[in-house]
Amino acid sequence: MTHGHHQTVALGMIGSGFVAEFYMAGLDDVPGARVVANYSRSAERADDFGRRYGIPRQYTDVEALCADDEVQMVVIGLPNHMHLDAVRTAAQAGKAIVCTKPLARNADE
To answer: Which of 16, 38, 61, 100 gives a 20 to 30 Å CA spacing to 48?
Structure first.
C-alpha cells in the first residue's frame, strides 16, 4: 500500500480570464491535479496564462486541446455563453468535463 500517493489527473484549462484564474487558484488545493494544457482565443493570452502558471502547452483551438492525448479532463473556464460548444467538443473527444453552471442555457441545449 503506497502511503500518501494521490492519483494524478492531467487537466486542460479552457479560458484565460477571471473564471480560469479562479479555477487555477482552487486547483492549488487539489492533490494530484496538474494543468498540462491551456486554451485562449488569443495566442498572446494563452502564452501569458501558461507562463504564469507553468503550463507546458498552449492552444488557440479548443479541438486541438481536446485532441491532446495527455489531457484527461477539461475544465471550462469561459464566459457562460461559450460553454455549450466547448462542452460538446470535449465530450466528442471523450474527455471528462468540469463545467460550472450553467451547463446549458435552457432545456433544449
So the answer is: 100
In this prediction, residue 36 has a pLDDT band, given cuts at 50, 70 and 90, of very high
Q: How many CB atoms lie within 10 A of CB 26?
A: 11
Cell of 87: 462542452
Beta bridge partners of 39: 14, 59
> Which long-range contacts does 87-95 make (Cβ < 8 Å, 24+ apart)?
89/62, 89/63, 90/14, 90/62, 90/66, 92/66, 93/63, 93/66, 93/67, 95/12, 95/66, 95/71
Q: What is the helix (H) or strand (E) element at residue 25, kind and residue range?
A: helix 18-27
